[in-house]
């Protein structure tokens, strides 16, 4: 009889423990169920600095909202091109995205000032501008287009790379078919160099180089290396014709759904992830250059004299796109 009581008490205690643990488990998991689940679009590879920056942003937001806001990063253009992503953000179908400023300039013409060839002396100069009041003013400009500017990512300097011969001066560009992303400004830049601009999605550049649709393209070193364009275009010219920063943006529809507290958290996380991305970019740029060179890429450095010749070729471009903004241009150059 005594043994039976002991067995029954043991069973009851076990049941009580199981019930308590189950309640704790259910409560814990209920607290972690997100209130919002948002999509974040990026067209780069999973291990690319911008994508890793996106992931850091998503992690920070999840942690600081105690799991209420979960952001799913989709890379490799899974959600479409950058232009597609911007369009889908109009109705909140995509909540966040990392896009090139050149793509934003298609929607927000005022952004063209930031894209002018040879605008910055170097990387440090650009970050002084973008992390200051000028950069904040440009982030705010996208609000008129149902978007919210969050922070700036690094994308290095854009350079030309070619298949048949190196580009060392303006004359070398004559007659070349050069791939560009969709951009009215880049179209005019390439034409000013005497070349033919060919608009092709980033994901299709390798095939275009292989088929001979284009015999040159322009992008930063990590993009050139990530998609293995060095297999086809062996000449990479460090002319640094453009330093085009990337933007983290949010759909205005989604932004207006959030509380002021959550908006503040997202803005802070975006700026922290931007610092992280820039550090990764510096590392990746050096690594990509070495990988490309190990695979036969010939890196050509353009002399100061030749850069001045490239600048001269851009005079009409400056006037066409930013003739009324010379005060801002001078302010940037002197910043």
If you had to describe this structure to a student in words, what would you say it looks like?
The chain is α/β, with parallel strands linked by helices and 335 residues long. It folds into 2 domains: 162 residues, D-Maltodextrin-Binding Protein, domain 2 (3-Layer(aba) Sandwich); 134 residues, Bacterial extracellular solute-binding protein, family 7 (D-Maltodextrin-Binding Protein, domain 2), CATH 3.40.190. 50% of the residues lie in helices and 18% in strands. It contains 14 helices and 11 strands. The strands form 2 sheets. Strands 7-6-8-5-9-11 form a 6-stranded mixed β-sheet, with helices on both faces. A 5-stranded mixed β-sheet has the order 2-1-3-10-4, with helices on both faces. Strand 6, helix 7 and strand 7 form a beta-alpha-beta unit. Helix 2 packs antiparallel against helix 11. It is globular. About 2% of the residues have low confidence.
Summarize the structure.
The protein has 335 residues and is α/β, with parallel strands linked by helices. It contains 14 helices and 11 strands.
């Amino acid at each position: 009889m005594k043994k039976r009581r002991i067995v029954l008490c043991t069973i009851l205690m076990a049941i009580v423990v199981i019930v308590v643990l189950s309640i704790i488990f259910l409560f814990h998991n209920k607290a972690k169920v997100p209130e919002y689940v948002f999509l974040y679009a990026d067209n780069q590879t999973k291990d690319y600095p911008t994508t890793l920056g996106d992931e850091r942003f998503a992690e920070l937001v999840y942690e600081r909202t105690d799991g209420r806001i979960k952001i799913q990063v989709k890379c490799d253009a899974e959600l479409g091109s950058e232009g597609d992503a911007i369009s889908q953000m109009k109705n909140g179908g995509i909540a966040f995205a990392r896009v090139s400023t050149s793509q934003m300039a298609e929607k927000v013409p005022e952004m063209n000032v930031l894209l002018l060839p040879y605008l910055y002396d170097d990387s440090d100069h650009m970050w002084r501008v973008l992390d200051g009041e000028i950069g904040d003013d440009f982030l705010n400009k996208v609000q008129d287009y149902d978007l919210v500017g969050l922070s700036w990512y690094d994308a290095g300097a854009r350079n030309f790379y070619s298949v048949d011969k190196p580009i060392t001066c303006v004359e070398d560009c004559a007659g070349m078919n050069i791939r560009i992303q969709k951009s009215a400004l880049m179209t005019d830049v390439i034409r000013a160099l005497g070349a033919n601009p060919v608009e092709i999605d980033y994901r299709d550049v390798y095939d275009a180089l292989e088929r001979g649709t284009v015999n040159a393209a322009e992008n930063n070193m990590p993009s050139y290396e990530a998609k293995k364009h060095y297999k086809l275009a062996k000449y990479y010219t460090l002319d640094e014709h453009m330093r085009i920063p990337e933007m983290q943006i949010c759909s205005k529809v989604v932004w207006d759904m959030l509380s002021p507290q959550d908006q503040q958290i997202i803005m802070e996380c975006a700026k922290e992830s931007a610092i992280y991305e820039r550090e990764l970019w510096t590392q990746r740029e050096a690594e990509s250059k070495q990988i490309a060179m190990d695979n036969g890429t010939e890196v050509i450095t353009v002399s100061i004299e030749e850069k001045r010749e490239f600048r001269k070729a851009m005079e009409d471009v400056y006037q066409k796109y930013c003739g009324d903004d010379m005060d801002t241009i001078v302010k940037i150059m002197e910043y």
